[in-house]
Amino acid sequence: MSEFNNKCVIVTGGASGFGKAMSEKFAAAGASVVVADLNIEGAEAVAGSLDQAIAVQIDVADEEQNRNLADAAVDAFGKIDVVCANAGIPHRAGRAIEMDTAEFDRMFAINTRSVFLAAKYCVPHMPAGSAIVTTSSIGAKRPRPGLAAYYAAKGAVLTLTQALAVELAPNIRVNAICPVSAPTGFDQNASGMAELSDKVNAQIIAGIPMGRRATPEDVADATFFLSSNEAKFLTGVCLDIDGGRAIQ
Ligand SMILES: NC(=O)c1ccc[n+]([C@@H]2O[C@H](COP(=O)([O-])OP(=O)(O)OC[C@H]3O[C@@H](n4cnc5c(N)ncnc54)[C@H](O)[C@@H]3O)[C@@H](O)[C@H]2O)c1
């Protein structure tokens, strides 16, 4: 019997990339999973491939839709035990001072306000012993050129995660993950290309001591750990999943 049997896990951004791998990881451990995404066809495809899962459409930046997500989870599974506030999006890479101000604001709405709203509407349904895991980025700690607004929004996620951790302790643990670059839908949004060129790939890998980019499974494994009883004394942790990228 797994500790995740009869547990309800919400994964935002669950249709693709990290969120898809998280949904699959929790489902394989016996959890009931709420696969939440703007892309409802993708969310339905993931949920349909899992034993006990539902798909919910949400724009994570929208307050009412966050309320609806929490209600849908409780209607389906009775409570909420784990929230993976994972949905997020980068802007097209470029110099910060040439960026549209509206695009800067959009980064904070989708990447940061979403975490606040997920906590606001899910926490009232979360019993003692529950966990929230937020998806930040290693660039929040060690920014490199090109994604300033995105990294700033993810930096705010780290502060929000730690502020929530102190407010919600000891009942609910709140931790963040800081992944390094991984080949997901992120590449398309940041570069305009579904697959990076060999040259760009090599440049990224040159900065990662472990010699490769992250995989969605690397990220799902760390999220699973932070949600589990193995991490019962961890809160406010901002865990690097970066193959050593932040050391340099
Ligand atoms: N891949 C990377 O290199 C990388 C590195 C560090 C952090 N991250 C972060 O990881 C998280 C997951 O991204 P990914 O790499 O799996 O990319 P992805 O594009 O494969 O997945 C993101 C998912 O979020 C959904 N989404 C986008 N905007 C949304 C919105 N407003 N409301 C609801 N859903 C929305 C998309 O439909 C998609 O299914 C994001 O927060 C991202 O910023 C990614």
**Which consecutive residue ranges, at least 5 long each, have pLDDT under 50?**
none
Secondary-structure arrangement, i.e. CATH architecture: 3-Layer(aba) Sandwich
Order of helices and strands: EHEHEHEHEHHEHHHE
Mean pLDDT: 97
What's the number of extended β-strand segments? 7
Helix content: 40-55%
What bound compounds does this protein have? nicotinamide-adenine-dinucleotide
Morphology: globular
Largest sheet: 7 strands, parallel
Tell me the number of structural domains.
Answer: 1
CATH class: Alpha Beta
Determine Rg (CA atoms, Å). 17 Å
The CATH homologous superfamily is named NAD(P)-binding Rossmann-like Domain
Q: What does the model show?
A:
It is a single chain. The chain has helices at residues 17-28, 40-48, 63-77, 101-122, 138-141, 148-168, 185-191, 198-206, 216-227; strands at 8-12, 32-37, 53-57, 82-85, 130-135, 172-179, 238-241. The chain is built from nine helices and seven strands. It has one domain (8-247): NAD(P)-binding Rossmann-like Domain (Rossmann fold), CATH 3.40.50.720. It is α/β, with parallel strands linked by helices and 248 residues long. It has a seven-stranded parallel β-sheet with strand order 3-2-1-4-5-6-7, sandwiched between helices. The protein starts with 7 loop residues before the first strand and ends in a 7-residue tail after the last strand. Bound molecules: nicotinamide-adenine-dinucleotide. Nicotinamide-adenine-dinucleotide binds next to helix 1 and helix 7.
